Amino acid sequence: MSGAKLRKMNLPDAPKPTKPYKYVDPREKERQQRLAEHKNLSPNLVGIRDGKPLCFWDKARKAKLKRLWEEGENVKTIAREVGCSESICRDRIRYEIKCGRLEKRRKEVTDEQIQSIVSRYKAGMSLNNIAKEMLMSRYQVTNILKEQGEKQ
Fold first, then answer.
1. Whole-prediction pTM value?
2. What's the structural domain count of the chain?
3. 82: in domain
4. Residue 131, domain member (yes or no)
């Protein structure tokens, strides 16, 4: 039979497939609604405990972030201390403390570190191994050796 004839016969449509029933705890539904209400107020909300919103960037974390930044720590170290990614940390510093682009912060290299790098290089250690041991980039080690006249 063609589709037109079937339509004329007024046969009932095939039953639509139903989704399997999923039990939702009423307390969970209520918690999700409260969370949605609080999310409208604060985009940094992590969850709700005892009916109160939990925010990741609470006053203590913001103060720690600001203190570490003012002490001269770099973004990677701050992110590790605060417990977030570098990207989030960078955005939060830009939002909380500064406006605009952040400059890269490198820790000051002490004279003892410079002497250690030079002595290791003279002993035949590779630049990669020196960088790993001194916790700095290979680029930074190379620049230090160039400044000391050890490498052209």
1. 0.40
2. 3
3. yes
4. yes
